[in-house]
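Thread: quick sanity check before group meeting

JM: Hey all, I'm pulling together slides for Thursday and realized we never actually wrote out the predicted structure for the chain we discussed last week. Dropping the sequence here so it's in one place. If anyone has concerns about the input, flag it before I start.
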Amino acid sequence: MKATKSRRDFFESIFETKTRKVTAGLEVYQNPLTLSDAYHLLRRTCIVLDHNYAKSLVGKTAEAAVDEIINNTKSKGQPSPPSFWNDVFPDPKLDSNGASSNDGKWRSQNYDLQLWWIKLMMADRNSLSERLAFFWHGHFTSQYNICNLIPAQLMYRQNKLFRTNELGNFTSFLKDITLDGAMLLYLNGNENISEAPNENYARELLELFSIGVGNYSEKDIREAARVLTGWKINYFKNEEKAYDPIFRSGYYDTKDKLVFGKTFTVGYELSEQNVRQNAINALMDTIASKKGKEMATFIANKFYKQFVYSKPNPTDKALIQALADQFQASNFEIQPLLRSILVSAHFYDKQNRGIQIVSPVESVINFASHFDVGDERKNNVMKDLGIELFAPPNVAGWPGYRSWITTKTLPLSIQYFSDFLSNQTEESVGNWAQQFDGFNDSYKITEQVASLFLGRLPDEVRLEKLMNKMLGGAPYYEWPNLIQNKGNAGLRIKVLINELIKTPEFYLR
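JM (edit): ok, ran it. Output follows.
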């Protein structure tokens, strides 16, 4: 008798990549988009998969659809800030009541900032804005922290910086993030002074943010740290320029430094503008010019892992190198790099669909977008499943991939999504299901709801089993009669979705 396959074995087999052989390259995908193509594109570019927006892309070319999504992203502008974004606080050293007062406000404002971002994610149905903001949040990591005094005001400003640069020039992005207030505090840039250089940011700048391990020496780190000395950040009422970086010339190392063969000499007045231009900006330009190939490969690899597949094989790596060459040739423009991926035949290959494990942000926000789930509830569930917004676990960000599916989080996920669904009225779910043109056919509605929620569509045998679960013993031809009552229709659709929640494909994109 054949042994029953465990859920863990099922996941291991479904994530097996030995048979994944994608021959398509960076040539533009030529077929007009089908609904399946549009779903795939939106699963990788948006956090919310909107059925009606996907339908609007059907029949368009990949280039037209991707350009539309990119243009939607660029035209969105900055979202309205949270109400407290400019609040400043009493300095605990000057106000004995300041410490406890600040602590409570910082905690509540950080929580409110999380809800602010969740609302933005829920509302974005047709652009890359929230996907990219979250991607860069996991790349240029910083963390809200009371102990180290990184308040929500600075985390909001960093989020705004991500949105400003998300499709822009990567070298310019490095210049901006280096003097970001949250980053200065998180990686101790504000403690980096000439008498005692702090190498923390310089190390992560090279290792995690720009060129990757093995492409620099310890001497490069030490010298880069000296270039970065002298910057502070303020956030108390009695201090000047709250939340803006401030240059303190007395803390700047004025001696010559040598990074990647370039000598940094102070032959200029030590003003904030001059040091920003001749030290900060010049260092990032040096990384781009002296280590351009390494930087291009490092960033192209991260984009491939985010938008195509987390575990590229040797064949994929040749394609990644071609992307890197394009990226370097464009002087490190992010938009052309991402566009090349999203319009490519490689991206749309069947073997690149439904192979990425979704993060709790994706699974919770997308599922909840179809139903009525409170923002606080969504936030708390995401935390339980491993993601707290504005609080990556460490400077390397979230590990992702299979870390999202564990013996702990999988049962929790099934429970939470089932709870989300059980709290919906049958009538509301019945009304929701009417958006599908196959609503009146039991097999078609099964297939269409499964297509929306599953990263891979099951075969006909499994679809029929799902349909029969939904029918609850009734013959398929009774479906049109069953759904005359919207409450009864919703009850049956809830049964179907509950079954989908239990499948591995529900956690793939």
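AS: nice. DSSP finds 24 helices and four strands in the chain. The CA atoms of residues 462 and 468 lie 10 Å apart.
JM: adding both to the slides.
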